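Could someone model farnesyl diphosphate with this protein?
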Amino acid sequence: MDGNGRWAQKQGHERLFGHNAGAESVRACCEYAVEKKIEYLSLFAFSEENWNRPEEEIAGLMKLMFQSVLGERESFMKNHIKFRVIGDREKLSAELVESIVSVEEETAGNDGMNLIVMLSYSGKWDILRAARHYSEEVLKAYMEGSTPPMLDNDLFSSYLSTCDIPDPDLMIRTGGEQRISNYMLWQCAYTEFYYTDVLWPDFRKNEFDLALKSFNNRERRYGNIK
Ligand code: FPP
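Reply:
Sure, complex below.
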């Protein structure tokens, strides 16, 4: 969700003003995704690298996350949204983790769209965590005298934080950046990419629709031939 800072600065405001406007785009895109019957919508809200930003911006973003999580709980229930956060929770405040867990628990039984917020997440973090987890299993198996499971695509995927979520079909990146920036590195192997210069606070229903239309015109061959 790139471009919040630039959007605010263009109007002579602090970057946080843009993040607040970005939260409105989040709401608009969630509503539209529900309307379009999209089953999974994941949002890259804060990367591991974002911890290097100025303290004030981080504090403002975390406050916004806290307010949004609690503030949207009713709307999640009304729209049957199942809410979940993925990322390194150890870096988040106890108060924020508590709010996340309570909304995750409250919405766990919902059968509508899965809304996944990637917070304090990075693709490399996810892969390293999975590799460590697997090596622990291997060690345990050897210590018990059994044969460790052979590592293949499916087994490795099962160790990732996204193990119960399908790989993304479409990744949308706003704000003119054309990089993956440590997002779901493993999971995006065959994801379609859509880049737009539109800054995230201006990315609403119409822009989302353009991205979906572009996706619907793609031919996905997965390395095969037609
Ligand atoms: C990147 O734009 C945006 C972020 C690091 C924060 C995204 C957060 C929100 C949209 C807040 C609401 C989120 C939820 C899930 C409620 P940038 O700051 O890098 O902007 P720039 O590219 O213009 O510098």
